Structure formats: C-alpha cells, structure tokens
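Our consortium's second objective concerns turning raw sequence data into structural hypotheses that experimental partners can test. To show how far this objective has progressed, the report includes one record in full. It was chosen at random from the queue rather than selected for favorable results. The single chain below, 70 residues long, was entered without modification.
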Amino acid sequence: MVAKFSSDDILSIEETTVTVRAYRHRTTIPSKIFRLLELKQGDSLRWVALRDGTIFIRKVPESPSKAGET
C-alpha cells in the first residue's frame, strides 16, 4: 500500500541529519514542524514505517489523565 496525498495537503517539507552516539540515534525536529505539531517537553511521537520506505510521524495525543497533570 502506497500512501497517497495531494500536494495541497503538504504544509512543510524539512530535512534534518541523524546524530549517532553509541546506541542512540537522534534527529532534530525542525522548528517549523515542532510549532506545527504544538510539541512540548515530554510529548511522544509515533513513527510508522511502510515497506516502501515512507515514514509517517505523528504526535501521540495526550491521555485524559496525563492532560490534567501539571
């Protein structure tokens, strides 16, 4: 299955590099994407990899119990 979307659906295209230190593989979320997803410290991201190499990254919605914590 190949994901299909219109170019009208694209809000931003960004590139980053991967930093490898020991067992950790890190990448930086571009600031425009960070703001678009309204990310904050402690948020979780869900990574979905398709067989064709396509990757989808989505912000995991906060659970109702976590949303009430401060």
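The partners drew two points from this record. Residues 16-67 form a domain with the Pemi-like Protein 1; Chain: D fold (CATH 2.10.260). The chain has one domain: 16-67. Both points have been shared with the crystallography group to help prioritize constructs.
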